[in-house]
Amino acid sequence: MFSRAAVRSLTASRAFSTSSRRETKVAVLGAGGGIGQPLSLLLKSDPLVSSLSLYDIRGAPGVAADVSHVDTASEVKGYAADQLDAALEGAKVVVIPAGVPRKPGMTRDDLFNTNASIVRDLAAAVGRAAPDACILIISNPVNSTVPIVAETLKKAGVYDPRKVFGVTTLDVVRAAKFVGEITDKNPTDTVITVVGGHSGPTIVPILSQTANAKGVSGEVYSKVVHRIQYGGDEVVKAKDGAGSATLSMAYAGAKFANSVLRGLNGEKGVVTPTFVKSPLFEDKGVEYFSSNVELGPNGVEKIHPIGQLTAEEEKLLEACIPELKKNIEKGKAFVSQA
Ligand code: NAI
Questions:
Q1: What is the pTM of this model?
Q2: How far is the CA of 143 from the centre of ligand 1 (A)?
Q3: What number of CA atoms fall less than 13 Å from residue 211's CA on the CB side?
Q4: Domain edge (last residue) among 166, 190, 223
């Protein structure tokens, strides 16, 4: 699960004295849920996490008691509904999978009414109790919840655009797996940059920039692009009303958190797609965009341009931009009208 670089960084950190080792507290808000539970377990096994703080309005102390028996060095503590600020105190990374998931027939935007206020209130708490933390937002619709977090932090006067991330890693994970399947390659050798946002037409996979994927064309290409954009629906349908992706999302969330932690620890060259405040399409009124981002000691270190696209990819991008703009504006309006 952890890259060779992560293991190397662990080995290196063990060579230092305990006092020079970076202590990193990670908080999970929504830790009792379908994503929150396996995500907490995976974070417990990440050597870069020294302390794990699990919060939910229901059930977090139980999850914490369970996960705390795993034989890794980190400490785990669970917090009840009225202990949010205590859960956040000292956290360097806050992961948010709190909120309702989709049922069959729903789009991510259908979740807006419920999740917008949950995410806003949690962001306000982070602004109060852990204003320097990197915030990793999993709760959907990500295209709107990221601007909601940013606007809430702005209101509190503690917004740092380098530290607010929408987690789009599941799209990257799916792209590698689905394209690996059709090209008969190992997904780890089929890493595909996915840009744009995190919902249907805003998900833009760039197959042309990956050696093992650029030969995919015609109907096979159209089908796999559609599968990457709507892969979440396969899971929602198969779960038949019991929710959306939880296990693959927990895997993707832990993978992204590990990248952020490696960046915070000063590791160089940690680059992955994530949905952040971005200059790339600001001229088109799109303030937030996912592209390859280099992570560093302060969060976002450098936003990479999307590079050369094929005509088909340009078309995908054209479809993405207006939808993304709408989703972002909806998130911003929610906070400004409150
Ligand atoms: P779930 O319903 O199983 O768990 C959500 C948890 O959030 C519950 O334990 C609930 O008690 C908790 N919660 C609700 N309000 C809260 C609050 N104010 N503070 C703290 N905790 C609170 O849902 P699941 O399946 O874990 O999904 C969570 C979110 O993640 C959904 O919005 C879903 O759409 C999203 N998601 C995002 C993906 C991505 O790629 N970014 C992929 C899959 C799901």
A1: 0.95
A2: 15
A3: 4
A4: 166
